[in-house]
């Protein structure tokens, strides 16, 4: 089982849409996926749910239920744990080893965590259980500062993660700012990937069709490259 964590201390970087789309791609390849929404803003949860869930990740974090007892079945290849606004109340009270211990009891090909855009004991606990970190970021000086902070803080928690930076919503041709970010010494331990502005990703999310990614050929190709380089490659 491989644990993927989509995380940036800055919001609005596209982590929820990217985590969702990459998870769909992996499910379409026949992989068993567990999505975990850790963000109390519930962006990922809103994609999956049409009504308020009975149990959420809060029930696990507050020790009311084991992790396996808050899992919702979505389809043959996708399970899901929704988030809740209540997570705001408990995100500074999570033990570091909580996810690491709980995930060892599960049997999936991939666990995909959509993290909250802050640095808290909840994010630390999720990072401690992470195998591969994805840090989506836009290309700007302000975003770069958040990107560097996210990477450095994550490595302080766990040094042996594979780290992927996804430069999100970039134009077709590489810009000067993008080249400077990609070559920065602060990213020497990261695999830098790029993802162009894909309007089809909005259509995919709105349709809420879990195994429909192959109908979007350009988006499928872009996600395939991220998966191959970010997960399966040893670079």
Describe the structure in brief:
The chain is built from ten helices and eight strands. The protein is of the alpha/beta class. It has one domain (2-135, 201-232): P-loop containing nucleotide triphosphate hydrolases (Rossmann fold).
What does this 3D model show about the protein?
This protein has one domain: 3-Layer(aba) Sandwich (Rossmann fold). The protein is 39% helix and 18% strand. The protein is built from ten helices and eight strands. The protein has helices at residues 15-28, 43-48, 57-61, 87-90, 98-103, 121-128, 141-157, 176-182, 200-207, 217-232, and strands spanning 2-6, 33-37, 72-73, 78-81, 110-114, 132-137, 162-170, 190-196. It has an eight-stranded mixed sheet, sandwiched between helices. The two termini are 20 Å apart.
Layout of strands and helices, then pairs:
Layout: E1 2-6, H1 15-28, E2 33-37, H2 43-48, H3 57-61, E3 72-73, E4 78-81, H4 87-90, H5 98-103, E5 110-114, H6 121-128, E6 132-137, H7 141-157, E7 162-170, H8 176-182, E8 190-196, H9 200-207, H10 217-232
Helix pairs in contact: 1-10
């Amino acid at each position: 089982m491989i644990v993927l964590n989509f995380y940036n201390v800055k919001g609005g970087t596209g982590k929820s849409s990217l985590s969702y789309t990459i998870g769909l791609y992996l499910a379409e390849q026949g992989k068993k996926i567990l999505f975990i929404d850790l963000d109390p803003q519930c962006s990922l949860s809103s994609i999956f749910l049409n009504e308020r869930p009975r149990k959420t990740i809060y029930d696990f974090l507050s020790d009311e239920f084991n992790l396996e007892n808050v899992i919702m079945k979505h389809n043959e290849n996708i399970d899901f744990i929704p988030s809740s606004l209540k997570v705001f109340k408990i995100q500074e009270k999570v033990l570091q080893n909580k996810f690491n211990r709980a995930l060892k009891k599960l049997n999936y090909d991939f666990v995909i965590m959509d993290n909250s855009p802050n640095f808290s004991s909840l994010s630390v606990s999720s990072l401690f259980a992470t195998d591969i970190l994805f840090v989506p970021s836009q290309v700007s000086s302000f975003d770069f500062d958040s990107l560097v902070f996210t990477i450095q803080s994550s490595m302080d928690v766990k040094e042996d993660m594979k780290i992927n930076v996804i430069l999100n919503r970039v134009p077709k041709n590489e810009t000067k700012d993008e080249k400077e970010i990609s070559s920065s010494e602060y990213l020497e331990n990261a695999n830098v990937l790029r993802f162009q502005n894909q309007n089809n990703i909005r259509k995919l999310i709105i349709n809420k069709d879990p195994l429909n990614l192959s109908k979007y050929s350009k988006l499928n190709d872009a996600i395939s490259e991220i998966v191959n380089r970010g997960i399966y490659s040893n670079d």
